[in-house]
Amino acid sequence: MPELPEVETIKNELSPHVLGRKITDVQILSRYVVRKPEAEKFPSRILGQKITDVGRRGKYLIFCLESGEYLVIHLKMAGSLLLGHNPEEAPKYTRAVISLNSGGKIYFRDPRHFGRMWLVKNVGEALGKLGPEPLSSDFTPEVLIGLLKKRKAPIKALLLDQNIIAGIGNMYADEILHDAGIHPLRSAESLSRDEIERIYRAIKKILPAAIESGGASVRNYSRPGGEPGTAHFSFKVAHGLGGKTCPCGGEIVRIVVRNRGTYFCLKCQK
DNA sequence: CCCGGAACCTGAAGGC
DNA sequence: TGCCTTCAGGTTCCGG
Question: Catalytic residues of A, which ones?
Fold first, then answer.
C-alpha cells in the first residue's frame, strides 16, 4: 500500500516510539518476510540493539542500529507497521513482532506476504538501484528533464519506475499527471519542456500535501497508531476516488498502463 | 539499454 | 448466501 507519503508518515509517527529504545525480542511468524540474513540468524543479530535513527529512501524504511547495521523494511503492496503493547493483540496477518524495552511492540502486518525485511551493513545491499528522492533539493526540473530524455515509454510507466525517481507509486502518479494536465500514455520524449516542468511542480506539490495529511488510507492502510490518513480525500482521479467527474467537468476514465489501473480525465489531460 | 507483460500471494468487493 | 471473477497502493524477472 504505501508510497512515499505513507512511508514518510510511518517514519514520522514511529520515530518517537523507537528512537533510543532497545530491541528486547524478535518473533518471526513467517520466515518469508526475512530476506537477509537467514531467518534463523536474523533475531539474534538485532536482539539487544538500540535504534539510533529512523530514515526513509524511496518506499524503504530504514532503522539505524547502534552496531552500525541497518534494519531495512519494504511494505510492498499490503504491508503495514502497527504499534501495540499487548502481545496477545497481534493483528491478523502479523508476520513479525519486534519488542522494545519501553514495553511497546511493532507489528509487521502483511496479508499478501509481499513485504520484506533485511539486516545489512550497507543499505545498498537491500535497496538496489534507486533514482533521486523527489523531495530533495537536488531534484530540480533539469534533473527530471535529463531523466526523461529520449525515453519512449508512457510517462505514467516512467513515473512508477523506481530507477528513475524513488517513491512515486500508482495513486500519486495518477494525481501528479492530473495536476499537470498530462495524459498518462504520452511518451516521455513527446513532452515539451513546459510540460515536464508542470509534472515537476505537481510532484513537489502533491507529495508534501499528502504527507501533511498522514498519507492516503485506501483499502487497509493505516498509520502506526491505527488511525487512517486523509490524503485520499483530496484525490481528483486516483483509484476512482475522485468521483466520476473531474472538477473541470470532464469524464474520468480507467485504462490499464503497464498492468496498473490508471485513472485520468478525458478533458483536461492531453 | 529500453520496453512490455507475467509472476509473486492472498484478501476484499462486486456481479449473478 | 455462495460462487466466480476482478481488482489491489510494488517489485522483479524474462523475452523481444
Answer: 2-3, 59, 260
